[in-house]
Amino acid sequence: MMNILQLLKPKALTAYVVQELSLRQAIEMLRRHRYTAIPVIDRDGKYVKTLAEGDFMWFMLENGITELSALERYCVSDLPRRVMCEPVYVDSTISDLFMLSMNQNFVPVVDDRGVFIGIVTRRDILQACYSELKDGDMFSAQPEYVREESEDDK
């Protein structure tokens, strides 16, 4: 039986931002790592939220900001949370993780105190599922349905 720790990308290997950073620093972190979203933690290391590219766009539009340099005046904590990227606890089930990954590119993982310990990516979940299915010979069986060639295919 697989557990979340087997799929965990630890905090030390994960990009994240601290909520006291400026919005410009945060958006540059996204760009540098080529991410579309990034976890946010507080000074105590607790998971706060996830920022997405769209969060920055909406903030800039709503505040009439046209220059990245203007984002230096704002902190990550000033950016409202638009989308809930729910975390899982380290002792949650794989089923919980799987369900959250359907709507999130990654799932933040926290310990029992809410401290951010890493992420599990949707890609890692899919790879684990594929390996399980492959090992169970699900992919070695012949297809039950074979499409017949129509006149349009010729």
Quick recap:
The chain has 4 helices and 7 strands, in the order E-E-H-E-E-H-E-H-E-E-H. By secondary structure, the protein is an alpha/beta fold.
Give a structural overview.
The protein has 154 residues and is of the alpha/beta class. The chain has a single domain (4-140), classed as CBS-domain (Roll), CATH 3.10.580. 28% of the residues lie in helices and 18% in strands. It has 4 helices and 7 strands. It has helices at 23-33, 53-62, 94-101, 122-135; strands at residues 9-10, 17-18, 37-41, 47-52, 88-89, 106-110, 116-121. The protein has a 4-stranded mixed sheet. The protein has a 3-stranded mixed sheet with strand order 2-3-4. Strand 5 (88-89), helix 3 and strand 6 (106-110) form a beta-alpha-beta unit. The longest helix has 14 residues, at 122-135. It is globular, with a radius of gyration of 20 Å. The chain starts with 8 loop residues before the first strand and ends in a 19-residue tail after the last helix. The model has no long low-confidence stretch (mean pLDDT 87).
